[in-house]
Amino acid sequence: MEITDLQIGILGGGQLGRMVIQSAIDFNLNIHIIDPDPNAPCKDIAQSFTVGKLTDYDDVMAFGKDKDLITIEIENVNTDALKELQKMGKKVFPQPEIIELIQDKRKQKTFYKANRIPTADFVLTEDLADLKTHGYFLPGVHKLGKEGYDGRGVQVIRTEADLDKGFDKPSLLEKLIDFEKEISVIVSRNESGDIACFPVVELVFHKEANLVEYLFAPAEIPAKVEEAAYDLAKDVIDKLDMVGILAVEMFLTKDGDILVNEIAPRTHNSGHHTIEANITSQFEQHLRAILNLPQGATDLVVPAAMVNVLGEEGYTGNAKYQGINDLMAMEGVHLHLYGKKVTKPFRKMGHVTVTAKDAQQLKATVDKVKKTSKVIA
Amino acid sequence: MEITDLQIGILGGGQLGRMVIQSAIDFNLNIHIIDPDPNAPCKDIAQSFTVGKLTDYDDVMAFGKDKDLITIEIENVNTDALKELQKMGKKVFPQPEIIELIQDKRKQKTFYKANRIPTADFVLTEDLADLKTHGYFLPGVHKLGKEGYDGRGVQVIRTEADLDKGFDKPSLLEKLIDFEKEISVIVSRNESGDIACFPVVELVFHKEANLVEYLFAPAEIPAKVEEAAYDLAKDVIDKLDMVGILAVEMFLTKDGDILVNEIAPRTHNSGHHTIEANITSQFEQHLRAILNLPQGATDLVVPAAMVNVLGEEGYTGNAKYQGINDLMAMEGVHLHLYGKKVTKPFRKMGHVTVTAKDAQQLKATVDKVKKTSKVIA
Fold first, then answer.
1. B325/A22 CB distance under 8 A
2. A68, A52 contact by CB (below 8 A)
3. Contact B44/A at CB under 8 A
């Protein structure tokens, strides 16, 4: 069957699905979306848009039954339905077993350990009482096994006095890593087993808020570390035997070691700059991977940074964008608005990619971007 | 009003409209399309899609009456309706008077002459009998005043024996220019009068078929010629007082002079490579111009070429794409399929942008691309 005849379904209709559709238009692909929100960012640009619950077996089955290929843009989906659809002969990428593994951080960490993938030491905790027996392990990070997302379900525990802040559900306690840098590699693999890595991205944290402030590429790391990061990302996707895009977030420790922090089996916030800055974007690469097409060249053509456009604190309601004209007047500033009607504090409303001749100009523009735009209600 | 609240209408739903929509998604704009073909490339990705005749007064009025801003992706539209919509307070860019000027090549050439814009010498001819009185003017090119498009309505007349091949309708006879190169500059202008030029593109002709084979940027021309080309493009858009994108195709003569050949008041085939190769694409620039946003930086980030994917001779029917996998395996090859169901000989079915480190690698890849893909039925 030609790729243009396939009916492709995506579970989730947020910004990641939206940017996949923008890319899919180039290949004239048929993309269908299911999302619980009738106003989801994909609603007007998908070939068809179904309102349904991604965690509901029946909704996912009803959506998937007339598709040829199914993929995701969010991990929190019903994998039993995906397994059943796979049995019916449909392609499901990433594979349902991998989505399950990643839905549960305890399984994810156990997988790393079993497969000798370097990661921070950890212990599993069943409940709060259990956690309290692991005071010797501090300082640590307590992570809820399931349903943590975008900062939720993660609690730093520095001393025994903080143990009460932990989760009373199956979780894991991880050693707090005093990292030098946090980096990310997006790796992809098609069904034939071809693997390609995007150049390493460096995440810059806001010192007070402990939030990712922006990302830039190329990362300012030694060539040896860079090579090690690629090897690690390839090793993870290979051992998972996964098809699709996998984002591998890593800690570069002060000793120069690299540890896997978290992985996401889908297009990822740390790859948005690839739309403008790389030969192939992560969104096209994901399509190439799941369609078993050759993996595209990933070279960075121009230095780039990515700044998330977040809902301003203190505003909830219909989104208004301040400073758009000023943003657009800055050289090398590329605006992406996700089409979300309602803003909330820290909601991802869009992003800005900055391209520049060198790292210095890049950082200067990033600073200006952060001061210029605001999403209010 | 915020740009995300505007209802924007485009007359025409072909590949140019499609690529405008792909870009408009970044700004979360509402784009509505009217096209006579119910299967036009824009049908699934526009906010709304209306089937209607672009040259019909009533169809254009009905489409435009609830829009705030109207633009075009093809010149052959009903300008009386556009003038009426303008009177109703809607923004119409490019302005209807400019569309009219460009619909008639006789008016276009007369405008150049009146405004001292350098162009090939010409005489107006009313019919075939009139043409035959201008044998002294040969060798020349006879061009139909109205409704010529994509090679139709143009006839080279080298000797008096060929005069019978001319048009029996109002036309113009232009001196045949023995040009060194054909080049193109895409220029844009917003309502505030800000003007930006994209780097000069060079058109490479197929020697036997007398067809544009491919384009590449940057053009291999002296800096002095480049500057003169920008000055000329800016002069044309300024004298037209136009808002939007204007493609200015020019001859570089063997004497080093630059003459305007033809202009198009819309996004253009000679700017497709800007999607991958320039900081701002021509499609985003058009949106910036008609929304009166600052004009984006136009710098070329990487050398690029553009090859049209045309319907193969001898095939008419439902399109099949040969060699897609091989194309996608080539480094720096970016495929754009326009989603046209039916192929015909020489129909524009898509294009390929090639990006490469240097001109040599660019041309090597272009040669491979031309041999690799075919659109058949």
1. no
2. no
3. yes
> What is the spatial distance between Cα A8 and Cα A32, in angstroms, rounded to a whole number?
6
Residue A152 has pLDDT above 90, yes or no: no
- For the record, the structure tokens of B175 come out as 């001196």
Q: Chain-centre distance of CA A219, in angstroms? A: 18
Six token digits for residue B54: 């672009």
Are the C-beta atoms of residues A354 and A308 closer than 8 Å to each other? no
- Nearest Cα of chain B lies from the Cα of A40 at a distance, in angstroms, of 12
In tens, the pLDDT along B306-354 reads: 999 999 999 999 999 998 889 999 999 999 999 999 999 989 999 999 9
A139 touches chain B (CB under 8 A): no
Pairing of strands A320-322, A304-310: unpaired
Closest Cα partner for B272 from B10, B11, B16, B12? B16
- Cβ–Cβ of B337/A18 closer than 8 Å? no
Bridge partners, residue A202, by sequence: A183, A216
Torsion A294-A295-A301-A306 (CA) sign: positive
* Least CB–CB distance from B332: residue in A279, A329, A331: A279
B-chain residues near A47 (CB < 8 A): 44
Q: What separation in angstroms does the CA of B115 have from each of B98, B111, B134, B245, B253? A: 14, 6, 25, 20, 21
Residues of B in Cβ contact (< 8 Å) with A25:
18, 21-22, 45, 339
Retrieve residue A212's tokens. Answer: 């990712």
The two tokens of residue B300 are: 């070329």
Q: List, for residues B214-272, the tens digit of each pLDDT value.
A: 999 999 999 999 999 999 999 999 999 999 999 999 999 999 999 999 999 999 999 99
A301 closest CB neighbour out of B18, B296, B302: B302
